[in-house]
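Students often ask what a 'structure token' actually looks like in practice. Rather than answer in the abstract, let us consider Antifungal protein, a protein of 78 residues. Its sequence is given first.
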Amino acid sequence: MLPKFTVVYAILLAVLASTTLAAPANTVPRDLAIDNTQGIAKDPVAACKDHKAKDSCKFISEGKLRSGHCNDKLVCSQ
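Now compare that with the structural description of the same chain:
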């Protein structure tokens, strides 16, 4: 029979290997990741809200959102 230390070491090594090789569960989904070039969320709804908060222009919604950007018409009063 194997010594207890060897059995415990083998179990710990197996647990470590399974957690290391598995994908991390706390990663941010790719669609919600921050786009570093634009500084806004890639989520289309969040992107629209971000643009509306930063702009003084009015948005006329077309009722559709494309992936990654706002699909509203921008109407400026300037």
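One point worth highlighting: Residues 63-71 have pLDDT under 50 and may be disordered. Ask yourself how you might have guessed this from the sequence alone, and why that guess would often be unreliable.
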